[in-house]
Design goal:
By secondary structure, the protein is an alpha+beta fold. The protein has 20 helices and 9 strands. The protein is globular and about 85 Å long.
């Protein structure tokens, strides 16, 4: 099709429409022309003037959130950076989501979007040109692109570690199918009308419904944990997957809440067991949840854990003990949690005091990492569980309490003595410094005014005090 002739007819009939269209990148603009032609059922060799009239009539029917962002979606990466410097605003995420909206309207798959692909390539090449650390010889320099990749890998490893600990924690307190089995997996999608709405509206609706599920579960005193993933369908409409943990006698109540907020999924779940199913291979299921972890619009979070659990975990793992997120933990809890983070599977120990088990399940209890105080208190030795909802799992809980409160004492005392020795050296040095300072005060004149600004009085056989 001769797009130049087509646009000439648009100029002649409605120059305002042409001005709006010229803000759009040619790739999207020509796809828009083709979409309108197909919707009006015109052939490829149709009358260009007729198609021009169709475009002028159809443009006002496009959603406002699409038309308003014609210029934004058309920016290259370097043009966007320049615009950000001028306006002082961050626009990269907004531009990416605006491209999603126009792709949905024009039915373009992400891999076929030349504008988005070029934007991503330019962004990556720009990051590679920023050298953060130079290396001599054949070793490659460490660039901003390397830093971004490392940060993604560390984030994935952190979330994977937290997920593994949550799964094992749920098993020992009765929030799974059994001590040797995991929880359940559910997929929830929005109604079909949201496949035609904006990406921002769909994400906001997902968040609203998730908050409703959490609120209703709290009101009904349902104790549950979960690993939540939000990511996009092939048509880039967001949906969610949840690995959830709840007691068997409360699972039906939680499912009612799920299908109350996602009522369109209830009939689908009855016809297709995979919508809401038991997990028999947790590592495989978690691998499915994490397979596209590094995708731009994929988000992993946790239900039932502290809001800042990711920061707490990262700070402890990297040894950033002065981070404010760790201020609520004692030195003993820090030491315990740090050791437990390195354990990948249950280990049974034998010593003079008897047998005891160390498990990754204990890590979140040592960190008091749950939102529920009822769960956090299970890590305390004095907690009585005989009449609680966890009484059926008292054997596993008492083993955990035994380790967290007694069995680690030997290694803790060794660590504690090392810290006391360091503290003793520091205090001894301070006392010696204070003694020397006083000795100077009594027996010498003030020759170090910069450090000790005082006057020497009642000296024996010494010059008069410093007076100016």
């Amino acid at each position: 099709m001769d797009y130049e002739r087509l646009e000439q007819h648009i100029i002649e009939n409605d120059i305002a429409t042409y001005d709006i269209l010229t803000a759009l990148h040619p790739f999207y603009r020509y796809r828009l022309y083709e979409t309108i032609r197909k919707n009006r059922r015109l052939s490829t060799d149709c009358d260009i003037r007729e198609l021009a009239f169709g475009i002028i009539q159809m443009l006002p029917m496009l959603p406002k959130y699409v038309v308003e962002n014609f210029e934004l979606v058309s920016f290259s990466y370097h043009e966007l950076l320049s615009h950000q410097r001028i306006t002082g605003t961050r626009l990269a995420r907004k531009a990416n989501r605006a491209r999603i909206n126009i792709r949905k309207k024009l039915q373009i798959s992400p891999k076929d979007d030349d504008v988005q692909n070029q934007f991503d390539v330019d962004k990556k090449h720009s990051a590679k040109r920023i050298i953060l650390k130079k290396h001599k010889g054949k070793k490659k320099n460490y660039t901003a692109a390397d830093s971004i990749e490392d940060r993604k890998k560390k984030s994935r490893a952190r979330d994977w570690g937290i997920s593994q600990c949550m799964d094992k924690s749920a098993r020992i307190i009765g929030l799974s199918q059994g001590p040797e089995n995991s929880g359940w997996f559910i997929s929830l999608t929005l109604p079909g009308s949201f496949h035609r709405s904006s990406y921002e509206d769909s994400r906001a609706e997902i968040s609203r419904r998730l908050e409703g599920i959490k609120r209703d579960a709290l009101r009904q005193n349902i104790l549950w944990l979960g690993i939540l993933k939000i990511h996009d369908h092939k048509d880039e409409t967001p949906h969610i997957h949840i690995i959830y943990y709840v007691s068997e006698n409360q699972r039906h109540l939680l499912n009612k809440i799920f299908f109350k907020w996602f009522d369109n999924e209830k009939s689908r779940a009855e016809e297709n067991f995979s919508v809401n199913q038991s997990i028999y291979d947790f590592d495989g299921c978690l691998g499915y949840m994490f397979h596209d972890y590094e995708e731009q619009n994929t988000h992993i979070s946790f239900i039932g854990l502290k809001n800042n659990i990711k920061t707490v975990w990262s700070s402890l793992y990297t040894g950033d003990y002065n981070n404010p997120s760790l201020s609520y933990l004692s030195n003993r809890s820090l030491f315990l949690s740090k050791n437990l983070m390195n354990i990948r599977e249950d280990i049974e120990y034998h010593d003079a005091d008897g047998n005891y088990v160390v498990s990754p399940a204990y890590t979140l209890f040592a960190l008091s990492g749950f939102k529920s105080d009822e769960i956090n208190q299970l890590g305390y030795r004095k907690t009585d569980i005989s009449n609680s909802r966890f009484s059926g799992y008292s054997l596993y809980i008492k083993k955990m309490q035994s380790y967290l409160n007694r069995k680690c004492r030997k290694s803790w005392e060794k660590h504690k003595h090392h810290r006391i020795y360091k503290s003793y050296v520091f205090r001894t040095s301070f006392v010696l410094f204070w003694f020397v300072k006083q000795l100077i005060y009594i027996n010498t004149k003030n020759v170090l005014k910069v450090f000790f600004d005082y006057q020497c009085n009642q000296l024996r056989g010494q010059p008069p005090p410093f007076s100016g």
